[in-house]
Amino acid sequence: MLDYELRRPLANAKYGNKVFKLKQFELAPGKAMHIQQKVAFKQLSTRTYYPGSHSFQLILNGEKREYVELDLAAG
Fold first, then answer.
1. Is it the case that residue 54 has pLDDT exceeding 80?
2. CA 34 to mean position of chain CA atoms
3. How far is CA 42 from CA 6, 26, 31, 75, in A?
4. Sheet holding 63-72, edge to edge
5. How far is the C-alpha of 5 from the C-alpha of 2, rounded, in Å?
6. What's the Rg (C-alpha) of the chain?
7. What backbone phi and psi angles, to 5 degrees, belong to 21?
């Protein structure tokens, strides 16, 4: 199972985490798989994105892996 967690600033100056499901698959030992995912920082009725530091963290079989941090500017 491959998921990712988005850590983003909230309106009250705290941070919130949201886990998104990417893919469930079985992979033979020694094999590799290329997975690409686009993320849109689009205003939704249930989720507002605020400027500031956001981070993505991969979760593979329930284990948190490397993360990427980015700074979202006001648009």
1. yes
2. 17
3. 14, 32, 35, 11
4. 15-23, 2-9, 52-60, 63-72
5. 10
6. 14
7. -80, 130
Tokens, residue 71: 């700074």
Write the CB contacts of 17 (distance below 8 Å, at least 6 apart in sequence).
Answer: 5, 6, 7
Cβ atoms < 10 Å from Cβ of 57:
17
- Please return the burial class of 62, using the count of CB atoms within 10 Å of its CB with bins 0-12, 13-18 and 19+: exposed
Q: What are 1-44's pLDDT values in tens digits?
A: 999 999 999 989 899 999 999 999 998 999 998 888 888 888 77
In angstroms, the CA 34 to CA 2 distance is: 12
Q: Measure the CA–CA gap between 45 and 53, rounded to whole angstroms.
A: 21
Question: What's residue 3's pLDDT?
Answer: 94
Please tell me the predicted confidence (pLDDT) of residue 7: 94
